[in-house]
Structure to design on (224 residues):
């Protein structure tokens, strides 16, 4: 099993640019989660999906953030326009029902 | 909503000393999960506890779930440098949803 895949480990962009983070969950998992981690705020849940449907997006900081899950094997988190304060590590995780979550390696985003 | 408080926030120990982190809630928890995140890595599931008073061991790690299911602890005996990282407790968000509520984590450093 390849685990949760976040193929981009580091992303550097300039303020105002659009940035899209991608995630491939573990096959067969019906839950997908997007987290953001910073030193100041710790691990924050941004949004999660169940069977490709967004369930709770109350953690999304503002309208600049959006997430989609067009099918069971792919999800994106988009920030448009990006700002320096969005710099963080973004993790994707997946799980099957209420079982433990499996995290991807994360994408370290730096917005200059 | 449910919250879990984790203490201490940081712990520095000499190699060979024991270490304990505590997770507390004001409400009864359906379960507790523990995760470890190595520096620069991603959270990795360690164990899940669901029964009142449950105790589980993984080599030098001992996990306990309180009788009232409102607290949990992770104890490491004779720490090693490989134990360095942040330890998170987490609990299910409620209902049948698969989201987790994470504690802020305890960051463990081990001096050789």
């Amino acid at each position: 099993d390849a685990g949760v895949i976040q193929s981009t480990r580091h992303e550097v962009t300039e303020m105002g640019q659009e940035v899209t983070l991608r995630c491939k969950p573990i096959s067969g998992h019906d839950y997908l989660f997007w987290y953001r981690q910073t030193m100041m705020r710790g691990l924050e849940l941004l949004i999660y999906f169940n069977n490709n449907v967004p369930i709770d997006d109350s953690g999304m900081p503002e309208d600049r953030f959006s997430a989609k899950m067009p099918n069971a094997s792919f999800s994106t988190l988009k920030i448009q326009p990006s700002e320096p304060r969005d710099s963080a590590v973004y993790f994707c995780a997946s799980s099957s029902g209420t079982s433990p979550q499996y995290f991807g390696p994360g994408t370290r985003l730096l917005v200059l | 909503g449910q919250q879990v408080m984790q203490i201490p926030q940081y712990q520095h120990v000499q190699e060979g000393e024991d270490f304990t982190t505590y997770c507390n809630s004001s409400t009864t928890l359906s379960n507790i999960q523990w995760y470890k995140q190595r520096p620069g890595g991603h959270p990795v599931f360690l164990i899940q506890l669901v029964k009142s008073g449950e105790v589980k061991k993984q080599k030098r790690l001992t996990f306990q779930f309180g009788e009232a299911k409102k607290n949990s602890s992770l104890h490491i005996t004779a720490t090693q440098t490989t134990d360095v990282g942040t330890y998170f407790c987490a609990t299910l968000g409620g209902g049948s949803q698969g989201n987790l509520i994470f504690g802020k984590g305890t960051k463990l450093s081990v001096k050789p």
User: Anything to note?
Assistant: The mean pLDDT of chain A is 94. Strands of chain A lie at 10-13, 19-23, 31-38, 42-50, 53-56, 65-71, 74-79, 88-95, 102-103, 107-111. The longest strand of chain A covers residues 42-50. Chain A touches chain B at residues 30-31, 33, 42-43, 45, 48, 50, 55-56, 91, 93, 95, 97-106 (CB under 8 Å).
